[in-house]
Amino acid sequence: MKTLENCFRNQEITVSYDPKICTHSDRCCQGLSEVFRASVIPWIDLEAAATLNIIEQIKKCPSGALSFCYNEELELVK
After folding, report:
1. How much is the pLDDT for 72?
2. Which residue, 25, 46, 53, 58, is most buried by CB atoms nearer than 10 A?
3. Which 3 state secondary structure label does DSSP give 73?
4. Cβ(19)–Cβ(44) under 8 Å?
5. Closest CA to 58 of 73, 44, 40
6. Contacts of 45 (CB under 8 A, 6+ apart)
7. Is 76 strand, coil or helix?
8. 27-56 pLDDT, tens per residue?
9. DSSP notation for 3-34
């Protein structure tokens, strides 16, 4: 069964979550629980914290299941 990647966007960044490689370390929820919410859908709320804080937390993801790119870069690719 193919699992589609989850993408979440605010004005500055787009965050991608790949559940196929997530190790469920819960590091994201513990580190920034107002953004990464295990019991709420959608589970990522990019409006709940400053973009730089979100980026810092994404960089701590041990499996690489969370990643981000700046939306400006996305516009250049199109």
Report:
1. 82
2. 58
3. helix
4. no
5. 44
6. 8, 34, 35, 37
7. helix
8. 888 999 999 998 888 889 999 999 999 999
9. PPPEEEE-SSEEEEE-TTT-----HHHHH-TT
Q: What does pTM read for this prediction?
A: 0.82
Q: In this structure, what token pair is assigned to residue 23? A: 């190790």
d(CA 13, CA 54): 10
5 pLDDT more than 60: no
Instruction: Decide: helix, strand or coil at residue 66.
Output: strand
pLDDT at 73: 58
Strands 13-17 and 66-70: antiparallel
Answer whether residue 76 shows pLDDT above 80.
Answer: no
Q: Residue 13: beta bridge partners?
A: 70
17's tokens = 């979550």
CA distance 54 to 7: 14
- Measured between alpha carbons, how far is 63 from 48 in angstroms, rounded to an integer? 23
